[in-house]
Amino acid sequence: MQMPIIRAERVEKYYAQPSENRIQVISPTDLSIVAGEIVALLGPSGSGKSTLLRMLTGLSAPSAGLVYWHEKPIATADVNVSIVFQSFALFPWLTVFENVEAPLKARGMDPAERRKRAMKILDTVGLDGFQSAYPKELSGGMRQRVGFARALVVEPEVLFMDEPFSALDVLTAENLRSELLELWQKKTIPTQAIFLVTHNIEEAVLLADRIIVLGRNPGHVRTDFKVGLQHPRDRKATAFTQLVDYIYKVLTQPDAQPPELPQTPTGKKVRDQRQMHYQMLPHARPGGIAGLLELVLDHNGKDDIYRLADDLAFEIDDLLPIVDAAQLLGFLTVTEGDAAITPTGAEYANSEILRQKELFRTAAVTNVLLLRQIVRAIEAKSDRTVAEEFFHDMLDEQFSEEETLRQLETAINWGRYAELFDFDASRRRFIQPQNVQNDAEPGVEIRE
Ligand code: ADP
Ligand code: MG
Predict the structure, then answer these.
(1) Whether the CB of 15 sits within 6 Å of ligand 1
(2) Does domain 286-350 sit in CATH 3.50.50.60?
(3) Tens-place pLDDT, residues 133-174
(4) Between 3.40.50.300, 3.20.20.80, 3.40.50.1100, 3.90.1570.10, what CATH number should domain 6-252 receive?
């Protein structure tokens, strides 16, 4: 068996909380990177892709477990990797040449050698003639070329990329992808392995020799497989679309089996989100949910999520929260990547706005614990108002601060739309909605 360049053994990441619970971001994970492979790490946003990448590069230490570089602990090894970021992360005050030369300077290389290497790589990535330009003078695509040049100039053994094409327009991204693939295949660059983080399934299937799909809450490997397709790959080929379809299915299926509860070194159980009290509200807007339901209805009430995303010109990442939300509200069911509208969902899609609000209100109160609790709390108070802080404190037992804020934002958005409550942003309080018409009682049945 080939010796891995990088090997992660039972690595975990968790963040301490003021309370005794921890936020587990990555559950214990084993993962190896071997020479000769392009590995793509796919997963929904927030699943921990960047966190895992940072641990594999040695940039960030795991909370538990170890990462090895050629079988030596990475913290003390002579690591040769570089990272290309989505945001380019260039120094705006340096020219293209100076940006590319910077990592060599940091390694103490003498000026003549630096110059030679920087000029050569600028030429390789198609930046000759741009050496004295500043980043702000360049288009996004050219800036990312600088990002690639700066990463490649140190001749990294492993090249890491974190959504490197996500900020670029479609054509520019396609262009850069094929140029990178050509450099790799013709061995113009001495890089031994490429590790690509992406949320774009087609990008993964287009480039990777091996695909790892990450699930979230906490991040864990759902599937890890080799891609046997020959290059150049044809997006329209059956084998290609079948693979894309398969990955969509993996991504859209709820976790089949929850993994073991990980134990922390102190023996304290780390919370597993699946056993938590509150559901994670998908960050989708009611308008988006309505739009999706209308489209599904238009497709005879049932369609492949892949095709729906395609029709909407959406990335899976943008569509999944909407699908999740529609599912949570009982408007949609999802099996093996096919979304099917429910009778309530169909009624919702067909109704005018007031009826839609009623249906949403019933669905929200029936299915979403947090919204039900807010409504109850308002009713229980004689002044018919309750502080946001109260719910913040309950949610942050379970979610990170960032996620708690997003959960509240979504709850406010849904509650306002459904006229379950209003929110006074200056006092940060939930209040009874203004024009509540009790005679228009939608027949909400509050179940425990
Ligand atoms: P991805 O790259 O897949 O979008 P990330 O690795 O950036 O995901 O983040 C994974 C999860 O870790 C997110 O839910 C994020 O909120 C959480 N997270 C990141 N940093 C911290 C932190 N300092 N404290 C608590 N949670 C964090
Ligand atoms: Mg990320």
Answers:
(1) yes
(2) no
(3) 999 999 999 999 999 999 999 999 999 999 999 988 888 999
(4) 3.40.50.300
